[in-house]
Design goal:
mainly alpha, 0% strand, 103 residues, 4 helices
Length: 103
């Protein structure tokens, strides 16, 4: 599980930088809220679905040691923020394209 966390970490850092750049940008408040709402909608399911899969694996397939469970939770948190950061980047570009096409 530690290897997966190490592989996700660079994507998490990139997504975190995207989030901070977007939150500090000079876009209108309405546009920021709309992009954040869309990105949060996509990122919201990552943690509960991952936790459910982990819980079902623990109950029906094999017992998971505490260390592995703890590491898996951290990986899920990293994935949650990574998905939100990439979704912000996607919707930000999509909003820019729609603004350019309206002009």
């Amino acid at each position: 599980m530690l290897i997966i966390g190490a592989l996700v970490l660079p994507f998490f850092i990139y997504a975190l930088v995207m989030y901070f750049k977007f939150s500090r940008s000079d876009k209108s408040k309405d546009e920021k809220e709309q992009v954040l709402a869309y990105s949060s909608k996509h990122a919201l399911g990552v943690f509960p679905i991952g936790w459910l899969i982990l819980h079902l694996y623990h109950n029906f397939i094999a017992s998971i040691p505490y260390d592995t469970y703890r590491d898996a939770m951290w990986v899920l948190v990293l994935l949650l923020f990574t998905v939100q950061g990439f979704a912000i980047n996607y919707y930000k570009k999509r909003m820019q394209q729609s603004d350019a096409s309206q002009e």
